[in-house]
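Team,

Forwarding the record for the chain on the shared tracking sheet. I've put the sequence and predicted structure together so nobody has to dig through attachments.
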Amino acid sequence: MAKAVQKIRLSASRDIPFNQLILSQANVRRIKAGVSIEELAADIARRTLLQSLTVRPVLDETGAETGMFEVPAGGRRYRALELLVQRKRLSQAAPVPCVVRTEGIAEEDSLAENVQRAPLHPLDQFRAFLALREKGQSEEEIAAAFFVGVAVVRQRLRLASVSAALLDVYAEDGMTLDQLMAFSVSPDHERQEQVWEAVQRSYSKEPYQIRRMLTEGAVRASDKRAQYAGENYLTAGGEIMRDLFERDDGGWLRDVGLLERLVAEKLERDAEAVWAEGWKWVEVATDFPYGHTYGLRAIVGESAPLTDEEAAAVTALQAEAAELEETYAAAEELPEEADRRLGEIETTLEAIEDRPTIYDAGEIAHAGAFVSIDGSGKLRIERGYVRAEDEPPVIEPEAIGQDGEISHETEEGGESGARSADDRSSPSEPAEEDDGLRPLPDKLLTELTAHRTLALREAIGADPATAYLAVLHMLCLKLFYRYGLDSCLEIEAKSVAFSAQAPGLADTGVALRVDDRHRAWLGQLPEDSGQLWDALTAFDTDSREALFAHCVSLTVNGVHEAWSRRPKALAHADRLAEVVSLDMVAAGWTPGVDNFLGRVTKARIVDAVREAKGEPAAGGIAHLKKGEMAVSAERLLAGSGWLPEPLRTPGRPLTFASPEQAEGAAQTAVVETAAPECATVVDPDGDQRDLVVGRSDPHAIAAE
């Protein structure tokens, strides 16, 4: 006969008034973890108690029950109830659901309740949040109900929206949470699955690689095209991919074709206003190469004059600013109100002085303009450039008669065309002389001017000031005017164009400063090259030297060109850099993926990080793939002052961060917050970001 299975008997449950409960010292939980008592109390107030307390009767010396019960399991719930009682939100005699235990050991009850409780898989929590939203709860309401930030709710909802196939892989621990977060960048499930298949066959399975594959071909929101036509893109229904877990600088615009079309259309619309100004031609492009205006003559306009009201306003504002500065001249720091007012005055004056430029209508008929986008995504209009083929014909003064008509006489004084029969004579027979004054023969003129040239060389060689002025005159003719033939000096000077365009060269601070300086000098020089000598003579010494330096600077060519063998010229560029103490870091050059790191070998990238940040930082990226290594190196080298060899100035040492700073930059600090499902990450740039991450257990995110 089979032995009967012994049936278990569950512990009895009953409602016990709260004032008959006391916290047991047998509770094994000693370390604070999970949701805070404050948050748990608020949750009980919202939803009431969802889980009973485990209690044991308190016995007296004789073993009889005293009517009190100790709580060995559920201590945090007990403290939350106690907090509600203290705040008068719960009666002291309120009945509390309890499971009454009489057998076993109290410590065993406490340990079993905590150990046997299985943590909720993060995916279950993500899907639960999604279910709550589908049932009508807003992200803010979900965040308030579970005491997390709205950003955390959005992160978890985004994770729940990843391809179902990938969620199944994550549920089976086939991918990490970081990888799943990377897949959430793109809403395209088909593309997500394609990338996962590719990652499975790839050596690199890092989240960065996944993000890069999902966003390749898209345009960053920080791109100048996106900055220029971003609003039009959104209005047209263009989709933007956002990364809720990493800094994305505004995300990525997915529909590149739509963006390019909108940019072209907006540029054409903006160019219509420029065409309406009467220019002969207007070129429109997203970007022009640096130096595209070289070889074109620039016409100079005048700023629109101030109206009487504007002139009076400028005078009044300048007087007010001078009075404020005089009042607080002795103060160590300006009062906030005075500083604010000075800022307002400066802004107003700049707005008044930023006036449209007026060009001569006759000049406009021969000139044109370039319409493009600058580095910040704003419209760039470069007006007033004349092409060589559009230059009006040059009429020599000698060809204009006294009546203002153009003379068609030849250099010998006769009419153009065939000579009359009377003028025909045998070459061997000298022409009959008459009493009229004829031009000197060319041969004689050559001989005479040779004497004069030699004497002029001797005189100028003894007069450095005049020699300096003559060179400056020639440089200006070459660099600011249509022709450089108005000087007797045979010195070649040309504004050197760049045979290769580095990424973003035209939008660098150095390029903008050079262009601004050139336009400033253009506005100070006369339009007629015949008046240039007198203008230069009228300049003071400082102005001449500054203009001379600018002209010389435009002729510098220290560019390495594979087809050009100029070793001594490049060595001379090094010498000039040394003399002027050229500092490319101060000039604004920073190593990035596009301009250096993404175009050299992995060994060079590691060497750069090692030199600037030390061996720990270099070792931290040595195992990465080329693309991820370049991005990581860009962050590590930002602000370090590191330069590649071609950009270093001989005799000028580089200053790098200290080893301690380098080691700190190579590490990422994770600080746990009060909520176990959220952590704050401090990246090497010093920025903080909230992530949905777990502790050592990858499934501990939603355990509480």
